[in-house]
Design brief:
Elements lengths: L2 H10 L3 E3 L2 H12 L2 H7 L14 H4 L15 H9 L11 H17 L16 H17 L5 H16 L7 H17 L3 H17 L7 E2 L2 E2 L1 H14 L8 H12 L23 H7 L4 H15 L13 H12 L4 E3 L10 E4 L4 E5 L3 E6 L5 E8 L2 E7 L1 E6 L4 E3 L8 E6 L5 E12 L7 H14 L4 H12 L5 E12 L5 E9 L6 E7 L22 E2 L4 H7 L1 E8 L11 E2 L3 E4 L1
Parallel strand pairs: 9-19
Antiparallel strand pairs: 1-4, 2-3, 5-6, 6-7, 7-8, 8-9, 10-11, 10-16, 11-13, 12-13, 13-14, 14-15, 15-18, 16-17, 18-20
Helix pairs in contact: 2-14, 2-15, 5-6, 5-7, 5-15, 6-7, 7-8, 7-9, 8-9, 9-10, 9-11, 11-12, 11-13, 13-14, 13-15
Length: about 575
């Protein structure tokens, strides 16, 4: 019995709670439905120069000048579908799947740089993210198919040693957790003690980065979506290695995550530091027997798959990410969890001051607010008549010169005030700060030519410098705009919430052309955002009627009542509307 199971059995006296087995199949059916699409993404011409490439923009459309290594992660879901008899599957033992997996792995080896690294967004990038994503998937696919290829093993070892020696600018903890998983898997398959030790060292480093509040940093803040990626990797690793503090780190990490899933199963959103809606279920299944909240998170996600309300990553770049994870989650589904899943005196609200996140989970209402992102929030009301929901990704203002500013720029130094009622619950929360100009950077032939030239000219020594320059331009740019927002959340006597926005122009020359409250927006670039979720049904709230008053008086106050009577009821999680008045 492992460490967590021993502790769980002792604390719960071998009691357990059964989970709904009927939900389990949705992991497999969701993933298997995409297997034809995965096969279509692979260049299947065994005599062609790009045989095994999964980047259709490169080998099929021929609009890309180099292949992105990130797509090679497709090897894992194909290998899992080939190896296991999933419910309703016709893919087990299918020779074409085994052929495709081997071709994908060999193309990765063929297209990699001499040091084993791979590119993602531009040539000579040597991207840590794409390299670790594809390696951990590739090595596991190699193991699942029981391949015996000395050249592939040599490539895996070369790539893993490159990962062990290199870092990346900006702290993306999920990338380092993936690196630890890739290093360990490669060390096992290649019987390389140095790589296994590098994996252990990487896990220790990741554990040390965890905030006392339970979250891991993603570009300096907490992102619940990416947090599940980190937990997934660490949960896989804890079944094979013993690192002091890892179990407690996972417990705290799951405890943090449990505040950011709605009763409908929706998870994450624009209030996170990176605005992602990731949910990696396999790690939660591995932890479900020991941590009730891991099982609860997984069950909520399964329910969202069952009613087709789960976030969907359907574009060619994103969809493969979760397929292997879903099949692994089915394979390792836990039929039970700890009996202490229901704790009567469990707190119903929590302020994560370090992350700038306030979460309230009541039986009928859920509210999540980010003080770090200017008061971006999501709200849901649940009762016998159905579910109502609203989300707000912040204020968007367009000036007459065409420049656009947003309130959602992540800033942990943003001012906020809390008013706590005598019973310990939140009575009012106010966050204040300037909007920042948004850079909606787009590629042009000239920009691409310059970028590719610099990437080739700077080469390996300039890899980090070029990445930092790009991050500063499209991710971290923060230039204050001449407009400020004060947003307050006030609890009304009936328990509902009122949102008061005070918008002020801070320059005499500033004039506004239009503005709106965005229901879905990620202004700073993040690859894993702007995907489909139920909130997209909610339109942006146009504030054109307030523009003239703002330009004339330099200040406008807008009051919204998040009252159930103002929101349409639905049996599925559908966004609602709010009443709005100008004061």
């Amino acid at each position: 019995m492992n460490r967590l199971a021993t502790a769980s059995a002792a604390s719960n006296r071998d009691e357990s709670r059964r989970r709904d087995a009927a939900l389990r199949t949705h992991y497999a059916t969701t993933a298997l439905g995409a297997i034809p699409r995965v096969l279509a993404a692979v260049d299947r011409n065994m005599f062609g120069p790009s045989y095994g490439c999964c980047d259709r923009e490169y080998w099929h459309y021929r609009t890309a000048a180099f292949p992105s290594e990130m797509y090679q992660e497709a090897a894992l879901p194909l290998a899992l579908a080939y190896r296991y008899d999933f419910p309703g599957s016709t893919w087990q033992g299918e020779p074409r799947l085994a052929e495709a997996v081997a071709a994908i792995l060999r193309y990765s080896a063929k297209s990699a740089h001499a040091d084993g690294s791979g590119d993602d967004y531009y040539p000579h990038e040597r991207a840590l993210g794409a390299t670790v994503f594809s390696l951990q998937a590739g090595v596991d696919a190699y193991r699942l198919l029981e391949l015996n290829d000395a050249e592939l093993l040599k490539f895996f070892r070369r790539r893993a040693h490159w990962i062990a020696r290199h870092d990346e600018s900006g702290r993306l903890t999920n990338h380092h957790a993936l690196a630890a998983l890739a290093l360990w898997r490669t060390g096992v398959v290649c019987d390389d003690r140095v790589l296994r030790q590098a994996a252990v060292d990487c896990v220790r480093r990741v554990v040390s980065w965890q905030s006392s509040e339970g979250w891991w940093p993603e570009y300096g803040g907490a992102d619940p979506g990416y947090q599940t990626v980190t937990i997934d990797c660490l949960a896989k690793l804890r079944t094979e290695i013993d690192v002091p503090g890892l179990d407690e780190a996972l417990r705290c990490g799951v405890e943090f995550c449990r505040w950011f899933q709605t009763s409908q199963g929706d998870y994450g959103g624009e209030y996170g530091s990176r605005g992602t809606r990731h949910f990696y279920a396999h790690g939660m299944e591995l932890l479900a027997p020991h941590f009730p909240h891991a099982a609860r998170l997984a069950d909520g996600y399964l329910r969202s798959l069952a009613d087709d309300s789960a976030t969907r990553w359907d574009d060619d770049r994103m969809y493969v990410h979760r397929l292997g994870n879903l099949l692994e989650a089915y394979r390792d589904w836990s039929p039970t969890t700890s009996a202490c899943a229901e704790v009567p005196d469990e707190p119903r609200e929590r302020f994560f001051a370090g992350a700038g996140l306030y979460a309230i989970q009541e039986p009928e209402r859920q509210l999540i607010v980010s003080t770090a992102r200017g008061g971006s929030f999501c709200y849901a009301h649940v009762d016998g008549a159905g579910t109502t929901a609203i989300q707000d990704a912040g204020l968007v203002v367009q000036f007459i010169d065409g420049h656009t500013a947003v309130s959602q720029t992540h800033d942990l130094q943003r001012q906020f005030d809390l008013l706590i009622s005598p019973n310990g619950s939140l009575a009012e929360l106010t966050t204040t700060g300037p909007l920042h100009f948004a850079r909606f950077e787009r590629a042009t032939p000239l920009k691409q030519a310059v970028l590719h030239f610099l990437a080739g000219a700077l080469g390996r020594p300039g890899r980090t410098l070029l990445r930092r320059l790009l991050q500063r331009r499209v991710i971290r740019a923060q230039r204050a705009a001449p407009v400020a927002l004060e947003r307050s959340f006030r609890r009304m006597p009936d328990g509902e919430w009122q949102v008061i926005d005070v918008i002020c122009l801070t320059s005499a020359r500033a004039k506004v052309r239009g503005m709106a409250f965005a229901s879905d927006l990620q202004a700073a670039y993040t690859a894993a955002t702007n995907v489909y979720h139920e909130g997209l049904r909610q339109p942006w709230q146009d504030l054109s009627e307030h523009v003239e008053r703002l330009n004339r008086l330099r200040r406008v106050e807008i009051v919204r009542n998040l009252a159930v009577s103002a929101l349409p009821r639905t049996v599925r999680p559908r966004p609602g509307t709010v009443s709005c008045e100008s004061v």
